[in-house]
Specification:
It is built from four helices and ten strands. By secondary structure, the chain is an alpha+beta fold. The protein has one domain. The strands form three sheets. Strands 6-7-8-9-10 form a five-stranded antiparallel β-sheet. It has a three-stranded antiparallel β-sheet with strand order 1-5-4. The protein has a two-stranded antiparallel sheet with strand order 2-3. The radius of gyration is 19 Å and the shape is globular. About 20% of the residues have low confidence.
Amino acid sequence: MPNTMILGENEYGLAERAILFDRWLSTTTLPDVLARPAVMTAAVEQPAPVLRKVVIRRRGPELLVEVHTNRPMSPTFLKSVEAVADLLSLPPGWNSYSAKPIAPQNSVRAIRLLAEFLEPQTPRPAVVPRVQGGIQLEWHTESIDIEVYVDSPKEVSFFAEHVESGESFEGPLAGQEQVLKAWVQRVSGK
C-alpha cells in the first residue's frame, strides 16, 4: 500500500508520524537453503522509496503538498520535502525586490530529484529559493560543494566541486544523472 505524506502547517497526523518513525532496516526470516531445521535471520536495507506521485493543492489559504511513495520515507527526505513546501508560501517580491514566487512545477521537480538522489545516509540539503521562481538544492561539506538549480522542470543544472582535489563538474542534469548521483554519494560518505 502506498505511503502518503501531506505537509500543511508543519503538523503531522498519525499516518505521517508512523511514516516518519518507520525504520529503514527490516528483518526478514529466510528458510535455510541446506534444509536444516534452523532458520536464518538477516537485516536487509530497503531501497529508497519510489516516488509515485506529487500533488500540490490549495485548500483555502493553506497549501498542501502530497507525496505518494511505495515505501516509508526517510526523515531526511521528509524534512527536505517540507523545506521545498515552505518555499511555496513566499509572496511575489519575497527578496524585497521583484523576486517571483516559487513555481509549483519547480517544487514538484525538486521533490522528484530529492526522491531520486537522496539515500537514507545522505545529509539533508539546504533548500534555497531562486529569484526567477526556481529552487536550489545545496550540499556543502569541508571538501565537497554541490548545487542543483531547478529553474523549470526541463531546465535543471548542477555544479559540483571537490575543493581539495580541484575536481569539478558544471552543466545540465539531462544525460548526467549518474554524475550527480556519484557526487551525492560522495557527500553521503560512500
